[in-house]
Design brief:
alpha/beta, Rossmann fold, 7 strands, 15% strand, binds nicotinamide-adenine-dinucleotide
């Protein structure tokens, strides 16, 4: 990709499956990568796997004071921010009628409040510097309904709309887009779904396989690069064709 050499890239949830693959991919593009994550053990594992990582900051994205402190540290250490991958997120499975207000708040706090708090700090830094790119993590769950994930679905729909609104107000200095993956196979999902369940799902997809963290990393790298300088305010689905058709399109 063009224009990523020496760029300072910040990845929230960077110690998780998609975050770590994205960190590795930006490093191969010649970027400098700092991860933010609330899980110190996961950060430690990532630092051993990716010794080229530029830095890591432990922070909980739901806490405005921790987010502000993380950006102060980033500014002190690196003095700039070019690309934000606003990726930290959680999901809680449960029937709509069983969701407690505490569970609802927990999902919104990470997936929507966290994305807002981090994006606003990043935008401040980019507006004061020489501009940049913000890529928010959405999901196909923000575009169509899925059983038993009402809070997650609503939070990701919010991320997609926040992305459009940010793009309107932050252009032309900052480009803002959202990435919406379908089923990406991560260690957590390998633990949650049997190989038979995964195969059954994959066989329904036009592309016949589940996604990989690397697939998503490749889309982030493209959207952050100078190959995408006319793209803002959009969401990009990466799902093997999962939501190309609706119920009525099934044979
Ligand atoms: N895996 C999929 O199929 C899939 C599909 C669509 C979207 N997504 C989204 O991609 C993102 C990454 O998912 P993943 O599959 O890599 O999950 P993951 O659980 O492997 O990674 C999430 C990371 O976020 C961190 N995190 C969680 N809460 C945090 C907080 N409050 N503050 C800071 N860090 C926090 C976790 O410690 C973890 O390292 C999420 O936003 C998720 O909703 C995943």
């Amino acid at each position: 990709m063009h224009g990523l050499t020496d760029k300072l890239v910040l990845i929230t949830g960077g110690a998780g499956a998609i975050g770590a693959a994205t960190a590795a991919r930006f490093l191969t593009e010649g970027s400098r990568v700092v991860v933010v994550d609330s899980d110190p053990a996961a950060i430690g594992r990532l630092e051993s796997e990716l010794p080229a990582l530029t830095g890591s900051i432990r922070a909980d994205v739901t806490q405005a004071d921790q987010v502000a402190a993380a950006f102060e540290e980033l500014d002190r250490r690196h003095g700039r921010l070019d690309v934000l991958i606003n990726n930290a997120g959680i999901s809680l499975r449960g029937r709509f009628m069983d969701i407690t207000s505490q569970e609802w708040r927990q999902v919104m706090a990470v997936n929507l409040d966290g994305v807002f708090l981090v994006a606003q700090q990043a935008a401040r830094s980019m507006l004061a510097g020489s501009g940049g790119v913000i890529l928010n993590m959405g999901s196909t769950n923000g575009l169509v309904g899925y059983h038993h994930y009402a809070s997650y679905n609503a939070s990701k729909a919010g991320v997609i709309e926040l992305t459009r609104s940010m793009a309107l107000e932050l252009g032309p200095t900052i480009r803002v887009n959202a990435v919406c993956p379908g089923f990406i196979l991560t260690p957590m999902q390998e633990a949650e779904y049997t190989p038979e369940m995964r195969q059954a799902f994959a066989s329904k997809l036009p592309l016949g396989r589940l996604g990989r963290p690397d697939d998503v990393a490749a889309l982030f790298v493209f959207l952050a690069s100078d190959d995408a300088t006319f793209i803002t305010g959009q969401h990009f689905v990466i799902d093997g064709g999962e939501i190309a058709g609706g119920l009525a399109s099934q044979p």
